[in-house]
Design brief:
The protein is mainly alpha-helical and 129 residues long. The chain contains ten helices and no strands. Helices cover 73% and strands 0% of the residues.
């Protein structure tokens, strides 16, 4: 709650990360109640707008937890987590760790149920161009 509110202010984002709020938020993502996880995800989403926090999230081990939660049946939580992963992927640390963890397979797996092969549309080769 409070960290999320503070994270809405751009001037606070980096300071919150430097002051050590990211590890406890990651812990809540891993083991908190659903409501606490949603609050932590929202706070981390806003904190991930700061470049330094993106790298910190990657280095502190958030990516495997986020990938697990991205597969959650609760759409609200999964969509927030995907936005955090998107922001982390904007850093070289984030991309490296995601590739090492084979995150592409997880992310493509999330898309697969939503692809209708009978519909005309771009194929994988066209998307990669």
């Amino acid at each position: 709650g409070a960290i999320f509110s503070l994270a809405l202010n751009d001037e606070n984002k980096m300071a919150i990360g430097v002051l050590g709020a990211i590890p406890p938020l990651i812990h809540v993502l891993r083991s908190g109640t659903l409501g606490a996880r949603q609050d932590a995800a929202m706070a981390l989403y806003h904190l991930s707008y700061a470049q330094g926090n993106r790298s910190k999230l990657a280095k502190l081990g958030a990516i495997p937890i986020l990938l697990d939660l991205a597969q959650d049946d609760r759409v609200e939580l999964a969509s927030r987590v995907l936005l955090i992963l998107y922001n982390i992927a904007a850093t070289s640390d984030g991309r490296t760790i995601m590739l090492e963890l084979n995150a592409i397979n997880t992310l493509v797996g999330l898309l697969a149920p939503h692809i209708d092969p009978s519909q005309d549309g771009p194929n994988v080769a066209e998307i990669q161009e």
